[in-house]
Specification:
Helices cover 49% and strands 9% of the residues. By secondary structure, it is mainly alpha-helical. A 3-stranded antiparallel beta sheet has the order 1-3-2. Strands 7-6-8 form a 3-stranded antiparallel beta sheet. Strand 6 and strand 7 form a beta hairpin. Helix 1 crosses helix 3 and helix 14 packs antiparallel against helix 15. It starts with 8 loop residues before the first helix and ends with a helix. Bound molecules: zinc ion (2 copies). One zinc ion binds next to loops. One zinc ion (ZN) binds next to loops. It catalyses: S-ubiquitinyl-[E2 ubiquitin-conjugating enzyme]-L-cysteine + [acceptor protein]-L-lysine = [E2 ubiquitin-conjugating enzyme]-L-cysteine + N(6)-ubiquitinyl-[acceptor protein]-L-lysine. Belongs to the NSE1 family. It is found in: Nucleus.
């Protein structure tokens, strides 16, 4: 096979370590590559000697080897730590399909409801949170009677089986907790210091087109508000970052992208609608934690989990109009039962 002369045990060991983790930063790669090189060179190599260049050479060897197995290596900047993250992504099946191979239909339907909450319910022009606290994901336990989640995912041309989807009962609290933990352990979700759940960089890379297909309106007019939005600078999805102060404008920027972006601009104004960019309109946790209501309550009541959960819901709760629609839907579902 071509390339075999260069592809050696060291590369193989690196691919194995990478696959076991799913993602890697330079910092995480350093000790791994140091041990590999120590064996190969027969003398101690220290982690501090591992440069981005060495890492890159192993990444490109791994990429070539993995491409034969329908995997690719992609990278993105972590929106919070601002460290570059490399991930092994499947090029033939999306993350939801992959999850379905190791989780039950109930668990997958729960994850779909969690994603709906992140990207639909708690992601509106008024407030783009795109994360959930534990009270909010517990609300996703119960399967709706008609189980639209199962239908929405089933677009592979297989017939929907209403009987089967009606049997979905949802997850118990403890099962939902275990599933969320499992999603964190597998690298799909991340749990922040404040205990909020959001999609990991790996999930954002793997689910990029799935999220767009699922939550954006393909028939929207150009410039119309969409749920999934991309950074004006790097074009990756923004779930944590800054937004245009104009409520219906789609322009978003990552915190780690803004400096270089504004350096090339004459004025700090939205490139689409020319609204002055104040850097104080946020996407993600800060959309909630920077609100007056959140700060006031933290000052007065401390951060007791139960109370802050109720508060989160108060701040993040969809607009009244949206809520009415939902109540109506629930009512209809009850009548169907
Ligand atoms: Zn960006
Ligand atoms: Zn704008």
């Amino acid at each position: 096979m071509e390339g075999d002369g260069e592809y050696n045990d060291g590369h193989r060991a690196f691919v194995q370590a990478f696959m076991a983790r799913g993602t890697m930063t330079l910092q995480e790669a350093k000790p791994v590559l140091a041990s590999i090189l120590t064996v190969q060179e027969g003398e101690p190599v220290d982690a501090v000697q591992i440069t981005q260049e060495i890492f890159d050479s192993y990444l490109s060897a791994a990429q070539e080897a993995l491409s034969r197995l329908d995997y690719d290596i992609k990278n993105t900047m972590h929106q919070v730590t601002k460290k570059r993250v490399w991930a092994i992504v499947n090029t033939t099946s999306d993350a939801m399909t992959q999850l379905a191979t190791v989780h039950s239909a109930e668990e997958i339907a729960f994850v779909k409801r969690v994603l709906d909450a992140m990207f639909d319910k708690y992601n509106s022009p008024r407030l783009e949170a795109m994360f959930l606290d534990s009270m909010q994901y517990h609300k996703c336990c119960r399967a709706p009677a008609a189980a639209p989640a199962a239908e929405a995912m089933d677009d592979e041309g297989e017939e929907n089986q209403p009987q089967q989807s009606q049997q979905l009962r949802g997850l118990k609290s403890s099962e939902a907790e275990a599933m969320m933990q499992s999603m964190v352990n597998q690298g799909w979700f991340e749990r922040s210091a404040k205990g909020f759940f959001s999609l990991s960089p790996r999930a954002l890379m793997e689910l990029r087109s799935w999220l767009t297909d699922t939550y954006n309106d393909p028939d929207a007019e150009p410039g119309e508000w969409q749920r999934i939005k991309f950074c004006e600078a790097c074009k990756d999805i923004v779930t944590v970052g800054q937004r245009c102060a104009e409520r219906d404008c789609n322009v978003r920027l990552h915190d780690h992208c803004e400096e270089a972006f504004w350096r090339t601009k004459r004025e700090k104004k939205c490139p689409k609608c020319a609204t002055p960019w104040d850097g104080k309109h946020f996407v993600g946790e800060r959309a909630v934690t920077e609100t007056e209501a959140y700060r006031r309550s933290k000052g007065h009541r401390g951060s007791r989990a139960g109370r802050s959960s109720g508060l989160m819901e108060q701040i993040m709760a969809p607009d009244e109009e949206e809520e009415e629609e939902e109540e109506q839907e629930e009512q209809e579902q009850l009548e169907d039962e």
